[in-house]
Sequence to fold (208 residues):
Amino acid sequence: MRRICAFLIAATLGGAVVGSLFPVSSAAAVYVTLYSHGGAGNYLECGWHGVCINPPSPGNALDWSSHSGSPENVFWRSYGERSDYTDYIAVATIRTQHSGCHRVRVDVSDAFGFSKGSILYTHTNTSKAGQAFYIYGGPNPAWTSSLIASTVWDGSNCSWSGYHNHQLSTGYPWYDNWSRYPSAPANGWSNPTLWLWHQSLQGWCWSC
Fold:
């Protein structure tokens, strides 16, 4: 008889402690992949860059807006895959990280509490700091969209202004989709192939 191990995961969501049992076979690995997408607007304002000058300085950020000239909502958007069944694969926690420019940071931890890095949204602010939400995955990629912030017009303490989302990852274990941008079409953020960053299968495997 195959032994089944049960792991108890506790995650704090909006002040409530939620527990979930994750049965994992001692003989079967569960492979998980997370794809992060653009969080605000439908238009890519600037391809991969550190600072959006001409030519752009090296970096792993992309600038997004809707060309509205006014504040707009910013979302966590992702597709998630897990090889066994559809369920949550991670917990995301909203933080602020202001330094001259306003910035919101979403910290990602997998279902066992291990850190998986962060996605940063510069020129944004939030009233949701400290709140958390589930990120889902499944054999067919599961879409997660959660309102996290809104764009702001940064003032004199920031080098850049204008309502847009300067979005980047914290690096490893995130991998950049270098080949896709800036050639991707506008308003393609919900297309599963138009991800910005992903976590590799090899780097995220349960019971392996």
Summary: Residues 1-27 have pLDDT under 50 and may be disordered. Residues 56 and 101 are 19 Å apart (CA to CA). The first strand starts at residue 4 and ends at 13. The chain is about 0% helix and 50% strand.
